[in-house]
Amino acid sequence: MAAILMIDDDIELCQLVADYLAMDGYQFDMVHDGVSGLAQAKSGQYQLILLDVMLPGMDGLSLLKALRHDNNCPVLMLTARGEDIDRIVGLELGADDYLAKPFNPRELQARVKAILRRVELAQHDTNQPMSPLILNQVELNPQNRQVRCQQQPVSLTATEFQLLEILMRHAGQIVSKETLSQQVLGRRLQLYDRSLDMHISNIRKKLHPFTADEKIQTLRGSGYLFLTGTH
């Protein structure tokens, strides 16, 4: 069963989350400050990290930025309700999703399952022989979960990889935000939720150093289109 690390200085909340997720059989550890949390997160033994923004020693956004230098473990940010800037910055730094406090335990459970499903899918895909997708100077290899642009490696989170894979498999076709939200984030598209926009923006930023050509087009009110390079 998946191992989850929660980094949050609210000890009572950590215990409540631990008790709730224990019903699903998850292995659960908790750390209550940023510096210790970063060290624990880098251990490589977790499939998911629940990360609070407000932490003593090192705040959650700084922790995430440091973690993403060499670690793509999925991260679910826990933000204060109404703090939109924290959510946006968290997604820009590579968080896979966010949840506003106070949250319903069932919503947390659903987010956790959705993220871990992506991890499981990624592991399953590596055991299935699948040919690389090569389109518009981008090569995506489902076998080893690697992406290259102009022959240069591009490091993507699990969420970014799955988004890019879906768009590339439907290259030249519009993929709706609703479809991407359901298939990648595991939830219905919600009004004012900018998660998909931020993930797509991150993919663009990571591809941009290797090519000036636009790869993903945004169609307002419709969705996204991966360009085949023939337009």
From TrEMBL:
Keywords: Cytoplasm, DNA-binding, Phosphoprotein, Transcription, Transcription regulation, Two-component regulatory system. The modification 4-aspartylphosphate is found at residue 52. This is Chemotaxis protein CheY. Residues 130-228 bind DNA. It comes from Arsukibacterium ikkense. It is found in: Cytoplasm. SUPFAM superfamilies: CheY-like. Residues 3-116 form the Response regulatory domain. One of its GO terms (cellular component) is protein-DNA complex. GO terms for molecular function: phosphorelay response regulator activity; transcription cis-regulatory region binding. CDD domains: REC_OmpR_CpxR (cd17623), trans_reg_C (cd00383). It holds the Pfam family Response_reg. One of its GO terms (biological process) is regulation of DNA-templated transcription. Residues 130-228 form the OmpR/PhoB-type domain. InterPro entries: CheY-like_superfamily, CpxR-like_REC, OmpR/PhoB-type_DNA-bd, Sig_transdc_resp-reg_receiver, WalR-like, WH-like_DNA-bd_sf. Its main location: cytoplasm. The keyword Phosphoprotein applies.
